[in-house]
Amino acid sequence: MKLPPAIAALHNGLPDDPAERAIALGAALAAIPTLQSDLRAARAEAVTTLKEGRTWDQVGELLQLHPARASQIARGITGGTKTKATEPSD
Questions:
Q1: What is the pLDDT at residue 47?
Q2: How far apart are CA 50 and CA 58, in angstroms?
Q3: CB 50 within 8 Å of CB 63
Q4: What is the pLDDT of residues 2-47, one digit of tens each?
Q5: How many whole angstroms separate alpha carbon 69 and alpha carbon 40?
Q6: Which of 19, 27, 56, 89 could disulfide-link to 67, CB 3.0 to 4.6 Å?
Q7: Closest CA to 48 of 73, 20, 83, 84
Q8: For the whole model, what pTM was predicted?
Q9: Which residues contact 10 (CB under 8 A, 6 or more apart)?
Q10: What is the pLDDT of residue 88?
Q11: CA distances from residue 7 to 1, 3, 39, 84 in whole angstroms, order as listed
């Protein structure tokens, strides 16, 4: 599996000892919800900065995204998938 560079750096810095590695990974997993929120906010700030003096078409091209998606990111709209509500079974 090819990891993004930032994640690979964290992964490569894990302890060799299995117990220490398991503890470190557990702490990392527990931090994921906060990390995701922080990363989304940082990404939104970066996209907002890119927008200064540019059109959304230009920003989208720089990020290899549709211009509407770039705008959504700047506004903090996540790209999560929606799940349909299921009918209660009788």
A1: 98
A2: 9
A3: yes
A4: 888 888 888 889 999 999 999 999 998 999 999 999 999 999 999 9
A5: 13
A6: 56
A7: 73
A8: 0.71
A9: 28
A10: 54
A11: 12, 6, 12, 32
Question: Are 73 and 51 in contact, with CB atoms under 8 Å apart?
Answer: no
Q: What gap in Å lies between CA 35 and CA 7, rounded to an integer?
A: 12
Helices (H), the chain: 5-12, 18-51, 56-63, 67-74
Q: Distance between CA atoms of 85 and 17, rounded to whole angstroms?
A: 45
CA distance 21 to 45: 33
Q: Which of 82, 81, 68, 6 is nearest to 42 (CA)?
A: 6
Higher-confidence residue of 52 and 89: namely 52
* Amino acid at site 34: T
Cα(65)–Cα(6) distance, rounded to whole angstroms? 21
Q: Angle formed by the axes of helices 56-63 and 67-74, to 10°?
A: 90
